[in-house]
Amino acid sequence: MAKEKVKPGETLIARNKRVSFDYELGQKYEAGLVLIGSEVKMLRVGPADLTNSWCSVQRGVAVLNGMNIPTMTGAAFGHEAKQPRKLLLHANEVKDLEEAISRDGMTVVATRLYFKGGFVKVEIALAKGKKKGDKRESVKTQDAEREARVAITRGRRGD
How far is CA 42 from the centre of its chain? Predict the structure, then answer.
């Protein structure tokens, strides 16, 4: 399976497309992940699932919950598919996340998972849930943008 290139030096593993529909995204952070060997091997050969993943702060440590990395069959020291995984962030970033979660009623969600310089990185973002009307508005703007792109490509072809 060919990995999609995002930025120079980055190889995309998984993207959470649902998160931009359900949440208004704010500040984004890049964090490292504490993984074991079988998890990294599975990320190199197959995709992970970020759909229901979120971040929590417990005793000053940021933890990613709900991310699914498929288990490796036949591994001597395997892993659980949906176990909590520790995030590697600076102390001031963890403090910012903790304050935003408690004060503003926000949540922290994972948006992308990728390799960068041989390391697995996850992009997390502060998010505030959208209301039903906001979701409808998002769908309308996406449809309008799609129609505009189609009209522009038809104009280029001379149809």
Answer: 17
Q: Which CATH code of 3.10.450.50, 3.40.50.20, 2.40.280.10, 3.30.990.10 fits the domain covering 10-130?
A: 2.40.280.10
Cα(136)–Cα(68) distance, rounded to whole angstroms? Answer: 29
The residues pairing with 62 across neighbouring beta strands, listed in sequence order, are 57
Cα torsion at 108, 112, 113, 119 (round to 10°)?
-90
Q: Mean pLDDT across the stretch 73-83?
A: 74
CA atoms within 13 A on the CB side of 120: 20
Which residues lie across from 23 on neighbouring strands? 129
* Statement: residue 119 has pLDDT above 80: yes
Among 110, 103, 119, which Cα is nearest to 15's? Answer: 110
Please state the domain extents for the chain: 10-130
Query: What span, in angstroms and rounded, lies between the C-alpha atoms of 81 and 48?
Result: 9
Give the residue-averaged pLDDT of 10-39: 89
* 157 confidence band (pLDDT: 50, 70, 90): low
Name residue, tokens 């403090």.
95
